[in-house]
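Researcher: For the annotation table, I need structure tokens for D-lactate dehydrogenase (cytochrome). Please keep the output clean. Sequence:
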Amino acid sequence: MASLLRGAIWRLFPRKGYCSWGTQGKLSQGFVEALKALVGSPHVSTAAAVREQHGHDESMHRCQPPDAVVWPQNVEQVSQLAALCYGHGVPIIPFGTGTGVEGGVCAVQGGVCINLTHMDRILELNPDDFSAVVEPGVTHKALNAHLRDSGLWFPVDPGADASLCGMVATGASGTNAVRYGTMRDNVLNLEVVLPDGRLLHTAGPGRYFRKSAAGYNLTGLFVGSEGTLGLITAATLRLHPAPEAMVAATCAFPSIQAAVDSTIHILQAAVPVARIEFLDDVMMDACNRYSKLNCCVAPTLFLEFHGSEQALAEQVQRTEEITQHNGASHFSWAKNAEERSRLWVARHNAWYAALSLRPGCKGYSTDVCVPISRLPEILVQTKEDLKASGLTGTITGHVGDGNFHCILLVDPEDPEELLRVKAFAEQLGRRALALHGTCTGEHGIGLGKRQLLQEEVGAVGMETMRQLKAMLDPRGLMNPGKVL
């Protein structure tokens, strides 16, 4: 079907004299008209302001705009757009909400940005089987709003109201991952438009089983692929029962070591904590100011527990004993929804709180993940490195997974400061690798961590990835310049 479609497109818009793609990196007017013919003129833009908006994410990577932005309305149009672009050698950059932090949407070779946010339907809900099928424009907040009265929820929450298929593409995680897993654990099937326009269902059309031993794990291949292998046009997601009750808490510690030791001891005691987040003293000070909290300015854990009232009482008691043994103080328990929401809104606004520490500067965020046992070592060392660097920055993280983030404030007009930020991020990544960890727990590779990826997986690993990329995208047009 796809080959017939491509043939029809090429007959309608012959290649000769049609697309001036090459050293100029610009689209001919004929090619732009072809885009409009496929999706309608209102859904195509070559305006400079629109292209600029789609040429960057939340990262420090400089804006590199595409040559055109297109908003398809359905999977058939996505397939037609991919076939058209691929047939004429035009790069394709998928775009969701633009909340990434590794430059994943920068159009380093120009091309066509395919904004998938107009495809925003929840296609299917199977409450008895704990699954839902969503289009790429559906955000995790929109899905949970839809599920509100069903007794189910989707717990993967990266903080920003990201699109779910974008979260699949970046292998997103978040505050609930310690109990419910990351996107890798919660995707059952994907509908993917391959670079040449063919349509792939990674687990077979319409299937949403919980386990399988049938063939290669194609679904896992596309989770975290960062738009370099295809365009995700639908995701079948695993849902979870909404907890009967929740309770949250904050507690301060005399040192980073004490806070992280408590994290390890809580996990070793098999307390089924749902969230366990670490914020250093600088981050806590910023959150107090930005979100009007009144927490102690010290290394702090934010915790949350899910379950029955009886189970929660036991979990809270055991956790309090463990943290007090490690010197914790200033406990604050939040049981009602409003109090809990206030804590977690403050945690999710940590990025903006950090930015407020140095008005007028930009934020640079990097993350790593290490085995839990190595977390105290790397966090203490990272705090010392941050002080030694002379940079303004905070540390926060999903420590229940061994994952943490550094948010650095930098003047983008100061080349020397930018070099110090780059050196700090590379040092942190290599420190994590030396401790048998990864250079990124959830941000992805994007533009900035390609060298670290090579060091992490080695020559054979990189060659295997390149072979997979070449098989699916032999012309190298899917989000070029990212990951590899």
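Researcher: And a one-line annotation?
Model: The longest strand covers residues 231-238.
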